[in-house]
Design brief:
The chain has 343 residues and is of the alpha/beta class. It has two domains: 151 residues, Spo0b-associated Gtp-binding Protein, Chain: A (Distorted Sandwich); 178 residues, P-loop containing nucleotide triphosphate hydrolases (Rossmann fold). Helix content is 19%, strand content 24%. The strands form three sheets. The chain has a six-stranded mixed sheet, sandwiched between helices. The protein has a five-stranded mixed sheet with strand order 3-1-8-5-6, with no helix packed on it. The protein is elongated and about 110 Å long. The protein binds guanosine-5'-triphosphate and magnesium ion. Guanosine-5'-triphosphate binds next to helix 2.
């Protein structure tokens, strides 16, 4: 499936139906009076967050959306019917911006969340509404109001609690395939992963968190090298990060600084998340002494560190536990803050 995470579309809500000008005509009822009904309301354009969708692909094919116009009012006091709404389904995590002003309209981050993004026009009043004591036969009826027109930009920001960031080939996809049911492509060459993958990691009593495997980052990515850094949009919402550096690396700390520089160029806030460096492919580094030395130098620089192997499974339990403990701590801190609002 193709992964599209940005798209611009045009929306047109339905115009309101016109009010009707008509007079009651019936045998034996002279001067029957005005009986023109009102126009119906135009259909709205509505956005709905749907968990069944993972990409904005469909919207990249269809760029124009139009709700139906309201029906016209009729004689015999009949009001027009309302125009049908246009409902657009979007993946959860879609952020909607006004394409003109660039302002954010809404962040659809909850399943089932709905928003009327363009309102249908009001129907016009029929002439039966304009009857007064001095004007018993009004020849006046309103036209319906035009429906709202809008151009919006949609950005998909995946919702995952834990993000895996590292150089190409570090073993990110292999790791997510070991921790979750996700089955991303794994291969012995850089840039195997071109789009983010999500996996659900289960732990303890039916609890789980979502982990994201991102395409590899390289030095200069913020200037466009490799796949660039635009996909980092998908870790904006993560709460903790795992950095993968191959244990065979000559200088893991130096590699780490390269990753940090690219993350910092995208959003310095990313570096404030709880982070852990996992030296990957432990099975390829059998010599315990030199591995311990590497871990020690990373820890000395103030990082939390672990050695793991997605192949042998070593260290995976600890890695999972670390992520869970960090998420729990963040949750606790969040709820305490909510209980004691400042000021
Ligand atoms: N020996 C060993 N090989 C591993 C381990 N984890 C991954 N590999 C191998 O390393 C290569 C790259 O693995 P991927 O999981 O595709 O790496 P990635 O970080 O997702 O790479 P990109 O998607 O290209 O950024 C594959 O050949 C894997 O089989 C490990 O723990 N031990
Ligand atoms: Mg990969």
């Amino acid at each position: 499936m193709k992964f599209i995470d940005q798209v611009e579309i045009k929306l047109q809500a339905g115009d309101g139906g016109n009010g009707c000008m008509s007079f009651r005509r019936e045998k034996y009822v002279p001067f029957g009076g005005p009986d023109g009904g009102d126009g119906g309301k135009g259909g709205d354009v509505i956005l709905v967050a749907d968990t069944n969708l993972q990409t904005l692909l469909d919207l990249s094919y269809q760029r124009n959306y139009r709700a139906k116009r309201g029906g016209g009012g009729k004689g015999s006091q009949m009001n027009g019917r309302g125009g049908e709404d246009m409902v657009i389904r979007l993946p959860v995590g879609s952020v909607i911006y006004d394409a003109g002003s660039k302002e954010m309209i809404v962040d659809l981050d909850r399943t089932g969340q709905r928003l009327v993004v363009a309102k249908g026009g009001k129907g016009g009043l029929g002439n039966m509404n304009f009857k007064t004591s001095i004007n018993q036969a009004p020849r006046q009826a309103e036209d319906g109001e035009p429906g709202e027109e809008k151009k919006i930009r949609i950005e998909l920001k995946l919702i995952a609690e834990v993000g895996i960031v590292g150089f190409p080939n570090a073993g990110k996809s292999t790791l997510i395939s070991r921790l979750s049911a996700a089955r991303p492509k794994i291969a012995d060459y850089p840039f195997t992963t071109l789009v983010p993958n999500l996996g659900v990691v289960k732990y303890a009593d039916y609890k789980s968190f979502v982990i994201a495997d991102l395409p590899g980052l390289i030095k200069g990515a913020s200037q466009g090298a490799g796949l660039g850094i635009q996909f980092l949009r998908h870790i904006e919402r993560t709460r903790v990060l795992i950095h993968l550096v191959e244990c065979t690396s000559e200088n893991a700390l130096k590699d780490m600084r390269v990753l940090e520089a690219e993350l910092n160029a995208y959003d310095p806030g990313l570096l404030n998340r709880p982070r852990l460096i996992a030296l990957s492919k432990l099975d390829l580094c059998p010599e315990k002494k030199s591995l311990d030395k590497k871990l020690k130098s990373i820890k000395k620089a103030g990082f939390q560190a672990l050695a793991i192997s997605a192949v042998s499974g070593a260290g995976l339990k600890e890695l999972k536990e670390w992520a869970v403990s960090q998420l729990k701590a963040l949750e606790k801190a969040g709820s305490e803050k909510r209980e004691q609002p400042e000021g």
